[in-house]
């Protein structure tokens, strides 16, 4: 559905570069919810912008490619590549940006924000007909159609987020990207938003990509996930496997920091901070924070190796496991 081949993206800061995404390579499959996890500043949101083709100065793609494989009007396959993916916005791929309040026009009613985004796809329909269809869709998503008459500030944070999801999915796109959809919402509202996303995906059978720093979100809703650290995807696999058997030391620490039922002990965050993306260190980027780092880690970058069925990770400690696996599977 969506394929990233070895993509690097950077911010051009007047001649110096912040390498926010470094050789990221993965695919999002049809009808799956794919999660992208990692601490703030690890490149998750930039990666989402790259996938959506929202490439504006100072952001640029420095290598690799992004492709979307979709069905055209006549049912024939169409491939959109970065640089022209924006031609398929709303219809094939849509985006729920972070911070509903900031992205909605504060002086326009919700109805006109829907009309601005989608009326060109419904040129033959009257405004009344289109409004009735939008109201019907809102009802399907258990949103009161009265929100169409509201200004964004009149809605709660949770309701604004729901409206953005409704807007992004109204045209039934093949792929929906959501950036931190539950951030800044209380736990009950968060759960409602995740339930809504899961319901939409189940109904439309489309693909979703959810970016969140909250591992709990991934556990609840995603089928497969990738963990990002300092611009790189350091582990990728089925969500269940990642939670049951995390392989990369960073993933283990992220999962170890999650509160568990019945365990009231104080959870520590991961000590230290990620390296600068302007001038990342040689070797493994996690070495300065990794409790099991060796000299090899500080000198040589680990390759991505297979550690289980559809499960890959980049860590020198895993290389013997991967070699044994290769020998076993021929
Ligand atoms: Fe830790 Fe070395 Fe593995 Fe990096 S390669 S995660 S430093 S053990």
Count of discrete alpha- or pi-helical segments spanning 4 or more residues: 11
The CATH architecture term is: 3-Layer(aba) Sandwich
Would you identify the CATH H-level superfamily?
P-loop containing nucleotide triphosphate hydrolases
Bound ligands, each once: iron/sulfur cluster
Distance between the termini: 30 Å
Report low-confidence residues grouped into runs of 5 or more: none
> Could you please say which CATH topology applies here?
Rossmann fold
Strand content: 25-35%
Topology:
Layout: E1 2-13, E2 16-28, E3 33-37, H1 44-52, E4 59-71, E5 77-81, E6 93-96, H2 100-103, H3 110-118, H4 127-140, H5 157-169, E7 175-179, H6 187-204, E8 207-211, H7 215-221, E9 224-229, E10 232-238, H8 239-244, H9 249-256, H10 295-299, E11 304-308, E12 311-314, H11 319-328
Parallel strand pairs: 3-8, 3-9, 6-7, 7-8
Antiparallel strand pairs: 1-2, 1-4, 4-5, 9-10, 10-12, 11-12
Q: What does the model show?
A:
By secondary structure, the chain is an alpha/beta fold. The protein has one domain (2-92, 173-259, 276-328): P-loop containing nucleotide triphosphate hydrolases (Rossmann fold), CATH 3.40.50. 31% of the residues lie in helices and 25% in strands. The protein has helices at residues 44-52, 100-103, 110-118, 127-140, 157-169, 187-204, 215-221, 239-244, 249-256, 295-299, 319-328, and strands spanning 2-13, 16-28, 33-37, 59-71, 77-81, 93-96, 175-179, 207-211, 224-229, 232-238, 304-308, 311-314. Strands 6-7-8-3-9-10-12-11 form an eight-stranded mixed β-sheet, with helices on both faces. Strands 2-1-4-5 form a four-stranded antiparallel β-sheet. Bound molecules: iron/sulfur cluster.
């Amino acid at each position: 559905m969506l394929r990233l081949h070895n993509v690097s993206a950077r911010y051009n800061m007047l001649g110096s570069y912040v390498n926010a995404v470094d050789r990221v390579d993965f695919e999002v499959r049809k009808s799956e919810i794919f999660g992208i996890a990692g601490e703030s500043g690890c490149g998750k949101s930039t990666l989402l912008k790259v996938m959506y083709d929202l490439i504006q100065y100072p952001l640029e793609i420095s290598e690799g490619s992004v492709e979307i494989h979709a069905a055209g009007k006549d049912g024939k396959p169409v491939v959109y590549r970065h640089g022209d993916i924006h031609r398929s916005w709303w219809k094939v791929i849509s985006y729920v940006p972070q911070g509903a309040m900031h992205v909605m026009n504060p002086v326009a009613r919700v109805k006109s924000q829907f009309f601005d985004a989608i009326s060109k796809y419904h040129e033959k329909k009257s405004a009344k007909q289109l409004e009735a269809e939008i109201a019907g869709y809102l009802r399907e998503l258990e949103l009161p159609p009265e929100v169409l008459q509201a200004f964004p500030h009149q809605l709660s944070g949770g309701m604004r987020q729901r409206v953005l999801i409704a807007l992004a999915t109204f045209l039934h796109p093949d792929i929906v990207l959501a950036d931190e959809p539950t951030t800044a919402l209380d736990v009950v509202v968060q759960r409602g938003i995740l339930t809504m996303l899961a319901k939409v995906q189940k109904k439309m059978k489309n693909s979703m990509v959810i970016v969140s720093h909250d591992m709990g979100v991934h556990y609840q809703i995603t089928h497969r996930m990738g963990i990002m650290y300092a611009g790189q995807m350091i582990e990728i696999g089925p969500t269940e496997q990642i939670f049951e058997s995390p392989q990369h030391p960073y993933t283990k620490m992220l999962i170890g920091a999650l509160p568990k039922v019945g365990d009231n002990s104080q959870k520590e965050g991961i000590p230290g901070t990620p390296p600068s993306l302007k001038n990342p260190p040689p070797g493994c980027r996690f070495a300065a924070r990794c409790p099991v780092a060796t000299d090899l880690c500080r000198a040589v970058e680990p390759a991505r190796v297979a550690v289980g069925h559809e499960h890959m990770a980049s860590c020198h400690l895993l290389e013997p496991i991967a070699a044994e696996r290769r020998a076993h599977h021929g």
